[in-house]
Amino acid sequence: MTLPHPLLKLDQVRRHRAGRPAVERLSLTLDRGQILGLLGVNGAGKSTTLAMIAGALKPDEGRIELDGQDFATHPALARGLLGWLPERAPHWPELTVLEHLQAHARLRGLRAGGLKQACESTIERLELAPLLRRLAGVLSQGQRQRLGLACALLHKPRLLVLDEPANALDPVQVAALRKVIREEAAAGAAVILSTHLLAETTAVCDRVAILHEGRLRHDAALDGDHAALEHTFFEIAMNGKDQAA
Hints:
Elements: E1 8-17, E2 20-30, E3 35-39, H1 46-54, E4 61-66, E5 69-70, H2 77-81, E6 82-85, H3 97-107, H4 112-125, H5 141-153, E7 159-163, H6 171-186, E8 190-195, H7 198-204, E9 207-212, E10 215-221, H8 226-239
Parallel strand pairs: 3-8, 3-9, 6-7, 7-8
Antiparallel strand pairs: 1-2, 1-4, 4-5, 9-10
Helix pairs in contact: 3-4, 3-5
């Protein structure tokens, strides 16, 4: 019996930036329904890793597979399979929130009734109705984060990649974000949540991977022992020591 392939697979991925290794020999897999917390201090290589997974950066070496297919050979996979919220979500300041959603839906291949339904359901889910006529250029940072998340969710991606998604969100919005993440995983999507905050990882993730200086130092399921994870994270961050998974 052939086992199903993971939704995401990174095999010995490397990427240099400004002549220095940003990600070094990273191998990682992610299955459907999993919520992976990608944890690390600032500069650990998290954003570079996510940008490669999303197709915004090309690895110098190694292979990335989405749904069993080589991303380098089939770059259009991202259009249908992947939703990405970068750390600083890009926006067109002259477009309204509604125009943003419609434009992103078209970029994802949605048309006519499918586009309208996707926008309406996402607006309701993320409570964007009061902002629809507002220009993106005058939104607060927290409102831009919500808009970016909405654009990432429009096409119901199988893999949701979130880079510091709780930036500038108030406590109510953070709780709503966690609810959305759990709903996506319950529906069968895989989620990667990148953060440098341990509390964000333990609040919503079922597995944690720790990067340090571009290398994977720890990868294990969360078992509820948050004190042990905190100790592991501190040891890696301070001393760069690999920890047994």
